Amino acid sequence: MQRLLDDLMDMARSNAGKLRLQPQRHILQEELAEAFEATRTQAEAAGVLLQAVLPEVPIQLDLDKDRFQQIITNLLSNAIKYTPRGGTIWLKANREPGHAVVRVEDSGEGIAPELQPKIFELFTQSPNAQSKRGSGLGIGLALVKELVSLHGGSVAVRSEGLGKGAEFTVRLPLVQHHPGTPSLR
What we know:
By secondary structure, this protein is of the alpha+beta class. Helices cover 33% and strands 23% of the residues. Strand 4 (88-96) and strand 5 (99-106) form a beta hairpin. The radius of gyration is 16 Å and the shape is globular. The termini are far apart.
């Protein structure tokens, strides 16, 4: 309930133009591992296997740690909510030209084609969301989109349809190293 209230307050701040990020240099894999651990208990309680596939070479990003954690935990929590007992969720990351890419993939109930174009709109939910674990108000994905946008990135969804799982992809700009600028290790 507290997370729901916090998300609602953050959406209100964002809509009023009062949500500000405090970016600092971070290693993507470390931040993803923290979000993974924060949702592990929820996944175990739901009987869902949570897997991480992260690159060994550190990926540097400038991001607001708390807001980034909010993005990833929202995506993982949604995946847990819509994945049946015995299902699997993967947290993956890789580097593409100019971007770090984070994917949350699940073997859950999937998303109907007609819902996908509006899944990131405020108060949009699956028609049977109330029957799922920890029903919400349809705020989380709208907030994810807003927070990713504030980081200069994008978020997208892909699902082959109902019963076929879903994949959420977050793209964030990589730290640009300029000649003569020291890099963090």
